[in-house]
Amino acid sequence: MIVNEEKFVKKYSLIYTLIVSFILLTPLSLYINHKINLQEVQTEVELKSIQAHIIKAMDNFGNHPQEIFEFPRFASFASGLYKKDFTPVYTQIHEPLPSYMPGYHSKGSNRYLITQLPDKKYFFANYLVTKTEISFAPVFFEASLIAFGIITLILLLSFYFLKSFSKPFRRVNEKLDDFIKESMHEINTPLSIINVNVDLFDALYGKNKYFNRIKSATRSLATIYNDMDYLIKQNRVAYKNEPINLYDFLQERVSYFELICQLKEIELLFTCNVEKKPILFFSTTKLQRIVDNTLSNAIKFSFAKSKIEIKLFHDKEQNICLSIQDYGKGIQNPQRILERYYRENEYKNGFGIGMSIVKSIIDEAGIDLDIQSEPGKGSLFTYTFKKSMFQSVPV
């Protein structure tokens, strides 16, 4: 049951990186906004400088009225003189102006500075307009490099520190896992010896109610053992799908649990309303965990001298359904019965892991489960196996 260290480190490194990056990138957004505002101010200053140069040129021309005035031209700037109604006297600007009010204006990537001139001083023009283009690409490129550097550094540091911190826990986890595996092995050996010797005693001396109780208890213990074994191997062993005769499989599991039922005088009734050979392509181990845990719970919470009905049938979509109905205490919280370690009755035996194993299996396989329960009257578990999970086998 060792936690996958690589997955753990990658997962929490990513989470930690996202959280810290969000915290650190918030000031970066303020920095970007500051840089953009600063660039806007610089652009406005440049436009004012260009206009000052143009006005100086027109002032100098006023002293030489006999000459032809050559309007200043600039590589990155366009300018123009406009009348009161903003009809051009002369202009290098070819698109409509964004505003007719003096001041600094923006339109897309273009920036304009409109300045009011003294009346009739400069070629009977009332306004001087200067335009340039602005680009924030360098700002965003710089911000992207900073953000990339921050995120990369945090990710690398997170990965390094989490990997270092996880080593002691991994060693403890490995020792615990080894202990559990060895314990499970030690439990399996005497369990097998008890079962074999009880069977030999039955063969030699006939049935004995006391030995039947021992055998029933060992079968209940075997179900818990199989759950624990499945949990240990869950993330390490690939349980391969294989053809399973569902009818024969259920018959065998019913026979297995009949001895346990005898102690409470519970009758197991199995009926099949589908073809006698529905071949399910599924893992035998996983199917056994589904059936055994559901039947085990049904027996545990059934009233003495009651019955448990196991049915195999088709639904409207021709999927095959397996239902297990008991007539016992019922479930107070059906929505919680699939939670790990949840137990309806703390004084009942069991660890509350069986149905959580079932949930992990059916979620992975896409098997639907419907739970209906009424306290004091019993519970009905219905598993729906999609028809695509079955092989067509001639009868």
From TrEMBL:
Molecular function (GO) terms for this protein are: phosphoprotein phosphatase activity; phosphorelay sensor kinase activity
Q: What class of enzyme is it?
A: transferase
**SUPFAM superfamilies registered for this protein in UniProt:** ATPase domain of HSP90 chaperone/DNA topoisomerase II/histidine kinase (SSF55874), Homodimeric domain of signal transducing histidine kinase (SSF47384)
Keyword set includes Membrane: yes
Please list the GO biological process terms of this entry: cellular response to phosphate starvation
Q: Which domain of life is it from?
A: Bacteria
Answer yes or no on keyword Nucleotide-binding: no
Q: Which reaction does it catalyse?
A: ATP + protein L-histidine = ADP + protein N-phospho-L-histidine
Its Enzyme Commission number(s) read 2.7.13.3
Q: Where are the transmembrane segments?
A: 12-32, 139-162
Using the record's annotation, list all stretches that form the Histidine kinase domain. 182-389
The UniProt entry's coiled-coil ranges are none
Q: Which keywords are on file for this protein?
A: Kinase, Membrane, Phosphoprotein, Transferase, Transmembrane, Transmembrane helix, Two-component regulatory system
Q: Kindly provide the name given to this protein in its UniProt entry.
A: histidine kinase
